[in-house]
């Protein structure tokens, strides 16, 4: 009996160990405590401890939070020749499912964001109300490719980019609405409405974030940097810009433009004043020149007339 009990206990321990085998998350290197559960590798996202599946892309909100956590703790991997760029990076608040909370705050300053985590309102105090998380339906990716020895074929480039986005970032090809190439500029359009997106589809905001990190040399994938080539020549990108179009227009007020408008007005006024001053000074110089010229002629003529009068009599001039 004791032998049977020991055997049963051993089997239970083996089963538990097999169910919780350590695993590696290839689609997200910013995770910890990875365990294999029912054949799926699940990990805790750094900075939030939210469980994420390594079978698909991690949400942008959790990735940004993990990046901020790594930056604070000094654990963030720095690519070679990396320059510090914190534009658009903040420590976000995420829902349990990984989505951004509609309202984001930094201390007492708050704003509303879209599903890509991009601010879509002016900044306010903590009383700000964000009624819903507005969906980003269209993402425009603009970039340039580095100089090449061989020219690029537009069709080959479009096919390569579409294949890469669908295979590497797991985005359904129907969400890639277009790839336009005008040497050396490349524009990629990703469109995904709320009605189009299926529950299992990756979000275009997550795809764009993964792709942006790949292009900038800070890949989220574990030991899997982006390598693209055409005609046996590596394809490299730079000057990448990402634009977001929401299902509902943003709610920025004219107050956010005040500083820029004032700057433009000041520049215009200064230019006008400088022009007027220049014109006045120019005319004054010209006036002085003409006046001096008249005085000089008067003096010369006066001296000459005096000399003539001294040499000839008044009668001589009268006879003339």
TrEMBL record:
<keyword id="KW-1133">Transmembrane helix</keyword>
<comment type="similarity">
    <text>Belongs to the EPCAM family.</text>
</comment>
<dbReference type="InterPro" id="IPR043406">
    <property type="entry name" value="EPCAM/Trop-2"/>
</dbReference>
<dbReference type="InterPro" id="IPR041630">
    <property type="entry name" value="EpCAM_N"/>
</dbReference>
<keyword id="KW-0472">Membrane</keyword>
<keyword id="KW-0732">Signal</keyword>
<dbReference type="Pfam" id="PF18635">
    <property type="entry name" value="EpCAM_N"/>
</dbReference>
<keyword id="KW-0812">Transmembrane</keyword>
<protein>
    <recommendedName>
        <fullName>Epithelial cell adhesion molecule</fullName>
    </recommendedName>
</protein>
<dbReference type="InterPro" id="IPR049420">
    <property type="entry name" value="EPCAM-Trop-2_C"/>
</dbReference>
<keyword id="KW-1003">Cell membrane</keyword>
<feature type="signal peptide">
    <location>
        <begin position="1"/>
        <end position="19"/>
    </location>
</feature>
<feature type="transmembrane region" description="Helical">
    <location>
        <begin position="257"/>
        <end position="281"/>
    </location>
</feature>
<keyword id="KW-0325">Glycoprotein</keyword>
<dbReference type="Pfam" id="PF00086">
    <property type="entry name" value="Thyroglobulin_1"/>
</dbReference>
<dbReference type="GO" id="GO:0098641">
    <property type="term" value="F:cadherin binding involved in cell-cell adhesion"/>
</dbReference>
<dbReference type="Pfam" id="PF21283">
    <property type="entry name" value="EPCAM-Trop-2_C"/>
</dbReference>
<feature type="domain" description="Thyroglobulin type-1">
    <location>
        <begin position="58"/>
        <end position="130"/>
    </location>
</feature>
<keyword id="KW-1015">Disulfide bond</keyword>
<dbReference type="InterPro" id="IPR000716">
    <property type="entry name" value="Thyroglobulin_1"/>
</dbReference>
<keyword id="KW-0677">Repeat</keyword>
<dbReference type="GO" id="GO:0005923">
    <property type="term" value="C:bicellular tight junction"/>
</dbReference>
<dbReference type="GO" id="GO:0016328">
    <property type="term" value="C:lateral plasma membrane"/>
</dbReference>
<dbReference type="InterPro" id="IPR036857">
    <property type="entry name" value="Thyroglobulin_1_sf"/>
</dbReference>
